């Protein structure tokens, strides 16, 4: 598949890195001469120095022959113009990053007028994942989904007291290990996919993810899921009134929660106060301990830090946890902060670059992927139809050498569902459930390779 990525910022480079695992023909376009010179020597892609909104440049690269143009510059208006030009010249599919709330009010108009096939909004996506977590946690927390004969369910570990204190390997021996098994665990805001020799044990505060034969998962859900609706989340404090904070406040406001936003910039506060009718806007520094105490942070049901600084978000999340806030969520863009998160016990950590890349890749992978589902904004469950032309076909799990963050957790062959082992050979016609961390999307993409070196 021929893919042009216009804009070599964090998101553009993340998508490039992932797609390189799938034998795609990638062209990367950007105006930064120093960056492009470095990338041309380090990446196996075609690099083009220039402005993507120039018609002559897009014609020179042959954009009409591309399957996708993914436009990710830092300017919304520029992305809209580039998308329109690429589509008009003849590019088959155009995906654009657009972040401004004012543009999102005319989502359908932009797509129809400028020929944009998909709009990705990182801030909106982050807000939706946070809102989903908070709302479902306080209403119907356990998620239950199906794809074909395979089922997948999220449950509090306390609902399965017989597995507490056991490693996942031994826990799967206790439950019906032939029809249902634990595929992943979320602990202290960090999702992990255990290997057979993982020595970590299931703890009381864990959330566990069960995969298995559909009927068995449904039976487990009937037995384990509490049908009673829980108390709604009522009080939420958001540190940072940027785009992510704004979108989240809108969603929680619609849900009926009482929301406070702390924002330092006075002009931004004025904007928020005119666009959010039932949200309390506080002009101040969220790192000011006196302010947090005055606003009674300890009485909050949830605290969300969405400032533009990772270090500040981590600091605020730690403060909220120490104040006893039940649900603490932080937006973190740098992956190397992951170890800190484990120690802090933050309930949920989201990376906007990974989430945005995942949304874009879902669009590109449609021809091979039956369905996909985001898990706590950190992982993804992908159902793949294995074709005769895929390199995956005929390989054993052991020969695939998947990293720790990616696992083929179940296989549907005909009407039978089973859990594969190292010697299991993947066959054409199989439907496989792949569970992976968003940070390991490169390796999920590798599973979609075809023998001719083309995708789809």
Structure description:
The chain folds into 3 domains: 1-120, Rossmann fold; 127-133 and 230-350, Rossmann fold; 140-213 and 353-456, Alpha-Beta Plaits (2-Layer Sandwich). It contains 17 helices and 22 strands. Strands 3-2-1-4-5-6 form a 6-stranded parallel β-sheet, with helices on both faces. It has a 6-stranded parallel β-sheet with strand order 14-13-12-15-16-17, with helices on both faces. The chain is of the alpha/beta class. It starts with a strand and ends in a 10-residue tail after the last helix. The chain is globular. The mean pLDDT is 87. A hairpin with a 2-residue loop joins strand 7 (144-147) and strand 8.
Q: How many DSSP H or I helices?
A: 17
Q: Which CATH architecture of the largest domain is right?
A: 2-Layer Sandwich
Structural class, from secondary structure content? Answer: alpha/beta
Rg: 23 Å
- Identify the overall geometry: globular
Provide the CATH top-level class of the largest domain.
Alpha Beta
CATH topology of the largest domain: Alpha-Beta Plaits
Task: Please report the total strand number as a whole number.
Answer: 22
User: Which stretches are poorly predicted, pLDDT < 50 over at least 5 residues?
Assistant: none
**Overall tally of structural domains:** 3
Within CATH, the superfamily of the largest domain carries the name Regulator of K+ conductance, C-terminal domain
* Strand order of the biggest β-sheet: 3-2-1-4-5-6
What is the residue-averaged pLDDT? Answer: 87
């Amino acid at each position: 598949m021929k893919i042009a990525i216009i804009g070599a910022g964090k998101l553009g480079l993340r998508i490039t890195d992932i797609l390189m695992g799938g034998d795609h023909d990638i062209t990367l376009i950007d105006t930064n001469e120093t960056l492009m010179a470095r990338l041309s020597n380090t990446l196996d892609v075609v690099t083009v120095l220039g402005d993507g909104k120039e018609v002559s440049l897009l014609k020179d690269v042959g954009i009409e022959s591309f399957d996708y143009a993914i436009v990710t510059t830092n300017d919304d208006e520029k992305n809209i113009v580039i998308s329109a030009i690429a589509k008009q010249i003849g590019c088959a599919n155009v995906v654009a990053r657009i972040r401004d709330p004012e543009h999102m009010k005319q989502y359908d108009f932009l797509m129809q007028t400028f020929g944009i096939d998909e709009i990705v909004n990182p801030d909106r996506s982050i807000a939706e994942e946070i809102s989903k977590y908070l709302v479902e946690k306080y209403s119907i927390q356990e998620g239950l989904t199906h794809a074909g004969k395979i089922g997948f369910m999220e449950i509090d570990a306390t609902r399965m007291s017989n597995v507490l204190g056991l490693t996942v390997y031994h826990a799967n021996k206790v439950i019906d290990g032939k029809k249902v098994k634990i595929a992943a665990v979320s602990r202290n805001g960090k999702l992990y996919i255990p290997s057979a020799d993982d020595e970590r044990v299931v703890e009381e505060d864990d959330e566990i993810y069960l995969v298995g034969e559909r009927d068995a998962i449904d039976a487990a859900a009937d037995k384990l899921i509490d049908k009673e609706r829980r108390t709604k989340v009522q009080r939420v404090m958001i540190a940072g009134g940027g785009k992510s904070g704004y979108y989240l406040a809108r969603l929680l406001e619609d849900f009926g929660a009482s929301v406070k936003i702390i924002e330092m910039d006075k002009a931004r506060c004025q904007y928020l106060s005119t666009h959010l009718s039932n949200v309390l806007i506080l002009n101040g520094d969220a790192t000011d301990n006196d302010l947090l105490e005055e606003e009674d942070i300890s009485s909050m049901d949830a605290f969300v830090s969405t400032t533009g600084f990772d270090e500040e978000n981590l600091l605020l999340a730690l403060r909220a946890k120490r104040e006893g806030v039940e649900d603490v969520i932080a937006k973190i863009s740098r992956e190397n902060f992951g170890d800190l998160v484990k120690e802090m016990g933050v309930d949920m950590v989201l990376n906007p670059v990974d989430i945005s890349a995942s949304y874009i890749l879902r669009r590109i992978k449609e021809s091979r992927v039956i369905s996909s589902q985001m898990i706590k904004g950190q992982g993804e469950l992908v159902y793949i139809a294995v074709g005769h032309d895929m390199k995956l076909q005929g390989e054993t799990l052991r020969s695939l050498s998947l990293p720790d963050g990616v696992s083929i957790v179940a296989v549907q062959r005909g009407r039978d569902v089973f859990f594969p082992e190292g010697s299991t050979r993947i066959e054409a016609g199989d439907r496989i459930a792949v569970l992976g961390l968003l940070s390991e999307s490169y390796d999920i993409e590798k599973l979609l390779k075809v023998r001719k070196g083309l995708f789809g």
